[in-house]
């Protein structure tokens, strides 16, 4: 067992990361991520995952479709990713459990704090699917909600850059990286890294968020040990 600063965490993964840059699921990428998460569990961490669905469907790009219906389709896409993660974990010998924010008993049980905690304490990874179960809320908000619900010590938000910047580092060579920020600064500066609901809930519940680069999956364990592997967002400086 390692000395972990954050023994219980919510890991927020985008759906795109499972696609490996394409639509659908790249199971080689999924296995690499799951192996690193398995190492975290073996080190003593309790891990809950909130996954997005953008590798299958993004509601905001659905044109003239009704927004509520588009978001419901997104929830189904998220459940597809959640089940794929569960299967990948089980193939590498890591027990996992999917819970759904949407009622679909033939697919997964509903989100339940006590069942989730019992599962994590027994060494399972819990995958929270279906977003918040409501339209108009992103999976960032779902990550903050689940973190508050299970009393996680941190939200780990995986991205494809090294943290939070004042502008897109993929487009601007002079982009400045922040080592630390507050949730209020995220809101005031309208930094496009999480939605306002997520930032406000993390602030109000005093849940730090670490935004880091998943291109090095080893950053997950480093973050749990307290290393600032990206940008740390807290309620107060």
How would you sum up this structure, described in words?
There is one protein chain. This protein has 237 residues and is α/β, with parallel strands linked by helices. The chain has a single domain, classed as Acetylglutamate kinase-like (Carbamate kinase, 3-Layer(aba) Sandwich). It is built from eight helices and eleven strands. It has a nine-stranded mixed sheet with strand order 4-3-5-2-1-6-10-11-9, sandwiched between helices. α2 (27-42) crosses α3 (67-91). The chain is globular, with a radius of gyration of 17 Å.
Shape by Cα distribution: globular
Beta-strand proportion: 15-25%
Q: What CATH architecture would you give?
A: 3-Layer(aba) Sandwich
Distance between the termini: 30 Å
């Amino acid at each position: 067992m390692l000395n972990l600063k954050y023994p219980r965490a919510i890991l927020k993964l985008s759906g795109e990361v499972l696609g490996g840059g394409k639509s659908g699921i790249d199971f080689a990428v999924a296995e690499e991520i799951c192996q690193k998460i398995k190492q975290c569990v073996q080190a003593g961490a309790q891990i809950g995952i909130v996954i997005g669905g953008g590798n299958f469907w993004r509601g905001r790009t659905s044109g003239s479709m009704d927004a509520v219906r588009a978001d419901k389709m997104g929830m189904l896409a998220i459940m597809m990713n959640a089940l794929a993660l569960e299967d990948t974990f089980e193939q590498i010998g890591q027990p996992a459990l999917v819970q759904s924010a949407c009622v679909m008993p033939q697919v997964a049980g509903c989100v339940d704090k006590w069942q989730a905690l019992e599962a994590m304490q027994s060494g399972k990874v819990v995958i929270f699917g279906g977003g918040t179960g409501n339209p108009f809320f992103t999976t960032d908000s779902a990550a903050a909600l689940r973190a508050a619900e299970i009393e996680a010590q941190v939200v780990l938000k995986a991205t494809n850059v090294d943290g939070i910047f004042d502008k897109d580092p993929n487009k601007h060579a002079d982009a400045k990286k922040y080592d630390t920020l507050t949730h209020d600064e995220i809101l005031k500066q309208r930094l496009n890294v999480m939605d306002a609901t997520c930032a406000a809930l993390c602030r109000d519940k005093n849940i730090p968020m670490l935004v880091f680069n998943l291109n090095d999956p080893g950053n997950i364990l480093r973050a749990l040990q307290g290393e600032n592997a990206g940008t740390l967002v807290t309620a107060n400086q």
